[in-house]
Amino acid sequence: MKMQKLVKICKNERALLLYDTADGVQWLGNRTAMFPLYSHPKYAEENIFAALDINEKQREKITFKHYPATPSHLDVSDFVDSECVVERAGGIAIYYCGKYLIPYKTQQGIMFVNGDSLAPLADQEDKMLYERQTASGETYFAVKSGFMVNGIVTPENIVDEVLLRQLKALYQECELTLYNQTPQNTDPQDEQQTIDALKEMYGADSDEDAEDDE
User: What CA–CA distance (Å, rounded) separates 72 from 137?
Assistant: First the structure.
């Protein structure tokens, strides 16, 4: 895991949340993502800022919370019966509301994940996202490499009428661009009608006159 990327997303959200677990592995994250600190020393408020190279000025802007357990509505275990792999929707992403957002196809439709939330796991090329549901039916994702969970990420709630209108407008503009870039096939009959119309406009014997002039 890239610790500097993890520290960066915590700074960006101005939140540093530390969770203890029964198995002794602590989790660290912000309000939308958290990651297990395998092979790390035990952290507390007294030492974590120095360990993460966060100076006093930066610390003043960050809310720190230390919890005795991970959030009860999120299952951080390596396997959940109802989970399923999700795929990216196409090969695109969007920049919206100041965030780089990646669309994924879920059982509830398209959901967007903040690309920065996945940045701490950028060194894990085999990572896959698994869709999970809370008891109240809310979707979240477990990020796995192999069979091991290396992160928990919640989707960004940005899908609304405004976003749909903007995406539709973009689609229409792209459709126009594609039309303008595509050679248009001309019907021979239409071509002949155009020629006949031009002859009628400029005189049917214009070609013959041109030959006589020569």
Answer: 14
